[in-house]
Amino acid sequence: MPSSHSALCTALTTSVALCHGVADSLFPVCLGFSSIVMYDAIGVRRHAGMQAEVLNMIVEDLFQGHPISQRKLKELLGHTPSQVFAGAVLGIIVACVCCRVCLIAV
After folding, report:
1. Which tens digits make up the pLDDT trace of 51-64?
2. Can you tell me the distance from the alpha carbon of 62 to that of 56, in angstroms, rounded to the nearest whole number?
3. Taking burial as the number of CB atoms within 10 A of a residue's CB, which of 39, 82, 91, 105 is the most buried?
4. Three-state SS for 67?
5. What is d(CA 84, CA 71) in angstroms, rounded to the nearest whole number?
C-alpha cells in the first residue's frame, strides 16, 4: 500500500509548484515539509516498528505465562522505501490531474 502521508505531501508540493511556481517562497516550505514526512515514514517510524518486534520477543521470553506477556507493542509502524516512493508518485499524479482540471475550469 502506498504511503498516504507521502502522497498528500507530494500532492501539496506539486500543486504549489504548478500553481505558484518553484520561485514562490511557499515551494521550499512545502518541499521541506514533504522531505521531513517521507524521512520520518521510512526512517524513524520504521525503525520504531523493528524495535517493537524485538521488544515483543524479549517480553515473551522473559514473562512467559505472565499477564504482561499478553500485551504486544504495535510492530507495523512506518513504510518501506518502495511504499513511500509509490505514495510520492501517486501524489504527483493526483496533483497534476487536479491542477489540469482547475485550469480547464477557469
Report:
1. 888 888 888 777 77
2. 10
3. 91
4. helix
5. 29
